[in-house]
Amino acid sequence: MEFNSVKETADVTDVLIVGAGPTGLALAVDLTRRGVRALVVERADRLFPGSRGKGLQPRTLEIFDDLGVLDAVRASAGPYPIGVIWQDGQRKGEQRMSDATEATEAAPYNEPWMLPQWRTQEILRARLEELGGEVVFGRELVGIAQDPEGVTASFATGAPVRARYAVAGDGGRSTVRRALGIGMTGESVDPNPMLVADVRITVLDRDVIHMFPPTDTEGFLAVFPLAGTEDFQVAAQFPEGTDADLTLDGIREVFAARTHLSPEAVTEVRWASDFRPRAALADRFREGRVFLAGDAAHIHSPAGGQGLNTSIQDAYNLGWKLGAVLRGGADPSLLDTYEEERLPNAAAMLGLTTRVHRGEVRRGAATHQLGLGYRVSSLTVETREGLPQDALHAGDRAPDGPHAGRRLFDAFRGPHWTLLTVGTDTPLPTLATVRTLHIPPYEAYGQGIFLIRPDGYTAWAGTTTTGLTTHATTLGLA
């Protein structure tokens, strides 16, 4: 079938994105700024209304900086406050939600920020519309078919959509994943069900997280003040086999039983959900011209705040590759590296969240996602020998740092490659669509030459340019 053969009866786009969650919206922003037509369709009639994925890790803040939404995020978000442990109506201690790490020139964001998921989505949607993109609501996908030229998606109502590629960002119960016949392997992280709800509470201060430890008869309950709102998020655990009551009366009963406050302190329930913590990974992240991203590809326990953040990294990895193929003339085989790079990273994050949930690992540097990278990717070439394990390698995240009165991140920002020399005047080859940048010796990099991908990871590193042009050619840059 020719790509345009159904043009008269179908909407046509470059990339169809199913699901207007953080994954789909971030991907749409990235594609749209690259000049790629991206259509986001959402089954519901509005954006997801809850706070569920409320933690933004430092690596996600860096990505949001590049996507042009960090100022809006920081205007609404705030750092996680200290946790106060209550017992019998008295404050009995304090607990930090995450081990502190020091901000550095190389890593300016050193702690997670709290922002309700619904607000993150609003910010991404506003950015998408600013760039000329849109979200179409009330579009329930009921079928998807592929041919050598593209993808055709059909919906419960309205015209089909014809696209070069499609991306499933439609969550853990992904319709697209099931339609493709892709399995998902997982395990229960905890047999005890959880409740999470956004509520209004009249008598708790908003300067701390209120933590009520479990007793012999009741599970734990925690109350998080949601930055930038008047709401609190209540999280509560129940005994195995119990069904949580998501009504106002049900949540009031749980709140009063586990705290020293009256049920009437909860004045309103704005959103509520229950779930059983689970970890699961899709068997593959691609089927032909369709890709899985976010919860459609991996489901995390909420512990450690990795789910939404790993999903954003999926979008960030896939966005520049789709852009390179659709607008930059790159070989379509580049898209094979999406699964190659993201599946093992998602698997590692699933293991981490499970260990955090079970109390085996503290939140901190391990959960900030700054140490994740692609050292073993086929897109990565390291020509230097004998590097210490903790030195910057090809495949690692490219550090920030000072540059000409500004920041390296300012120079990296945007949908382009960067060729960076550090402490060397070695003549550089001319590479198409690649910006060059020269800085003096800088400890975070060491001395050398670094080819930095559009998603901020180093693709090639060396002390001379030997082999650089060859690798750049394989990437479509020379």
Automatic annotation (TrEMBL):
The record's section on InterPro entries has: FAD-bd, FAD/NAD-bd_sf, RIFMO-like
Residue ranges of the FAD-binding domain?
13-350
| Membrane-spanning parts | none
- GO terms assigned for molecular function: monooxygenase activity
- Which cofactor does this sequence's record say it needs? FAD
Q: Which UniProt keywords apply?
A: FAD, Flavoprotein, Monooxygenase, Oxidoreductase, Plasmid
One Pfam family of this protein, by short name?
A: FAD_binding_3
Q: What is this protein called?
A: FAD-dependent monooxygenase
